[in-house]
Amino acid sequence: MTITGAMTGTTSGATREPFTLGLTGGIGSGKSTVADLFAARGVPLVDTDVIAHRITAPGGLAMAPIAAQFGPEFVAADGSMDRARMRALVFSDETARKRLEAITHPLIRAETERETREANGPYVIVVVPLLVESGAWKSRVARVLVVDCSVETQIGRVMRRNGFSREQVQAIIARQATREARLAAADDVIVNDGAKLEALAQDVEILHQRYLALAGAQNAAR
Ligand code: ADP
């Protein structure tokens, strides 16, 4: 396991407040594991997957527009989005997927910004599994941290964690950005391939100190 990325100031989001780090990685790379290690150091997390789920839960912000545009058959009995039905639709219908995203993406963005503003901590980590795939996120964060491992490691972990077959995991990975594309978008990289959790925690600690310094520099420049 190694950490790369020099301490070279901030990028496009430097004027945003608070200092915001985007955390991403492929499925099974160890994003949640790494995010939890930062959280244990007092860094607030904003998780876009959690927000996406919340806005399509009963009474969620996306539910009225979804019912209006897709019809009541896409709303389950409890008032949440009928996920299985919507998944089947957007899997086969690109226009429907774009219409759904036109509802959800602005809401996810607005909720992410609100939670980031309201978070209390030295800096904020926004966990965006599809940061590289949905390009705009990169410009909304000061810095991108990628959790990286081999595809074979991803497959093994997700088969164990979710009980999926190798083919199921490979199909998910095939829909995500490639490892190379993710690394190209990274300011910092944690390589989490066969790493012991203690070693991972040490890497997180080194990065945490770096981010504290960058956040401090951003505050001092105001
Ligand atoms: P992601 O959020 O990127 O999908 P997770 O953090 O959930 O990935 O990690 C996937 C699985 O692999 C989890 O069950 C996690 O406990 C395990 N895992 C992650 N990193 C390591 C590691 N360094 N050593 C052992 N198990 C790990």
UniProtKB/TrEMBL annotation:
Top EC class per UniProt? transferase
Record gene name = coaE
Catalytic reaction equation(s): 3'-dephospho-CoA + ATP = ADP + CoA + H(+)
Q: Name one GO molecular function term.
A: ATP binding
Name the EC number(s): 2.7.1.24
Role according to the record: Catalyzes the phosphorylation of the 3'-hydroxyl group of dephosphocoenzyme A to form coenzyme A.
The reply on keyword ATP-binding is yes
Q: What are the UniProt keywords, alphabetically? A: ATP-binding, Coenzyme A biosynthesis, Cytoplasm, Kinase, Nucleotide-binding, Transferase
Which HAMAP family does its entry note? Dephospho_CoA_kinase
**One Pfam family recorded for the sequence:** CoaE
TM annotation in the entry: none
Could you tell me the Gene Ontology terms of the biological process aspect for this record?
coenzyme A biosynthetic process
What protein name applies here?
Answer: Dephospho-CoA kinase
State if Nucleotide-binding is listed as a keyword.
yes
Q: List, alphabetically, the SUPFAM superfamilies matched.
A: P-loop containing nucleoside triphosphate hydrolases
Q: Which family does it belong to?
A: Belongs to the CoaE family.
Q: Which organism is it from?
A: Paraburkholderia tropica
Q: Where in the cell is it found?
A: Cytoplasm
